């Protein structure tokens, strides 16, 4: 029997309108009642992921920021963290500005951005329906203030995200970013997500496996996009969603139904 199920959130566990269906909740609770460890692995920051972790109704370790920050919900204990680092932050910022992209920086509980658009705007919208203690802290930054922001937060920035509707500029920026010693991935066709070298969902799941003394053959991983590929490949059983992109599906052992069809419950 598999001993741990690890799921992406957006496009996987969540419906398009950001709900966890009753069928998915039941399947996860049934699995947990049989002794299976349930975990979330997301590109979102921890504060945002925690809200949904509580909705599942079982204690879940949360891999956030694409693997840069891992925390056990039930123990409220950080078990892994890898910051982006000041030199990387400045290189990424300069490259994003060079290609005219929108950009934001993320810690475990806050985002920093000049303009709330795409990813950063989504966090602002999600905040609208949350109590104060569950909201992501949003800091608007004037371009002239970035040096101060970086200096004050360099020890906590985990990830940067660049977005643009101009796919040519996005591709050029991605290509240049890959010349640096960092991890470059994507969770959406118009974004680039960047973490420190060695940070990925796959490596985070491997860390959790060792932490819980599990073999990779004991693990199921489910996802839908590029940033899920590493964990889909690592798992004993890698599952792509029916709505997943071609990279996720090519990496998978099995393709389940879409996130709108309770694909997580179907796979379980």
Order of strands across the biggest sheet?
Answer: 5-4-3-2-1-12-13-14
**Strand-residue fraction?**
15-25%
**Oligomer category:** single chain
Q: Name the poorly predicted regions.
A: none
Main beta sheet strand tally, sense and closure: 8 strands, mixed
Q: Tell me the structural class.
A: alpha/beta
Termini gap: 11 Å
**Helix content percent band:** 25-40%
What is the averaged pLDDT score? 96
Structural summary, described in words:
The chain is an alpha/beta fold. The protein is 36% helix and 23% strand. It is built from 11 helices and 14 strands. It has helices spanning 9-13, 22-33, 46-56, 86-98, 119-127, 146-153, 167-177, 201-211, 229-234, 246-251, 263-267; strands spanning 4-7, 37-41, 61-64, 69-72, 77-81, 102-106, 110-113, 137-140, 159-163, 182-185, 191-196, 219-223, 237-240, 254-255. The strands form 2 sheets. Strands 5-4-3-2-1-12-13-14 form an 8-stranded mixed β-sheet, sandwiched between helices. The protein has a 6-stranded mixed β-sheet with strand order 8-7-6-9-11-10, with helices on both faces. The longest helix has 13 residues, at 86-98. It starts with a strand and ends with a helix. The mean pLDDT is 96.
């Amino acid at each position: 029997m598999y001993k741990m199920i690890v799921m992406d959130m957006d496009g996987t566990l969540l419906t398009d309108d950001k709900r966890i269906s009753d069928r998915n909740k039941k399947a996860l609770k049934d699995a947990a009642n049989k002794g299976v460890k349930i975990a979330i692995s997301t590109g979102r920051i921890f504060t945002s992921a925690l809200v949904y972790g509580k909705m599942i109704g079982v204690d879940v370790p949360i891999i956030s920021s694409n693997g840069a920050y891992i925390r056990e919900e039930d123990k409220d204990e950080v078990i892994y963290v890898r910051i982006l680092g000041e030199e990387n932050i400045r290189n990424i910022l300069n490259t994003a500005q060079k290609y005219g992209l929108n950009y934001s920086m993320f810690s475990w509980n806050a985002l920093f951005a000049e303009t709330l658009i795409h990813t950063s705007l989504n966090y602002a919208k999600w905040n609208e329906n949350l109590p104060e203690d569950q909201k992501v802290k949003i800091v608007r930054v004037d371009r002239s203030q970035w040096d101060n922001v970086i200096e004050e937060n360099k020890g906590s920035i985990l990830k940067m995200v660049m977005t643009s509707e101009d796919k040519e500029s996005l591709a050029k920026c991605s290509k240049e970013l890959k010349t640096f010693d960092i991890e470059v991935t994507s969770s959406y066709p118009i974004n680039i997500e960047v973490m420190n070298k060695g940070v990925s969902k796959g490596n985070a799941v491997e860390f959790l496996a060792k932490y819980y003394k599990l073999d990779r053959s004991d693990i199921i991983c489910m996802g839908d996009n590029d940033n899920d590929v590493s964990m889909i490949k690592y798992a004993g059983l890698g599952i792509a969603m029916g709505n997943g992109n071609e990279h996720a599906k090519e990496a998978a052992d099995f393709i389940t139904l879409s996130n709108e069809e309770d694909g997580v419950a179907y796979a379980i």
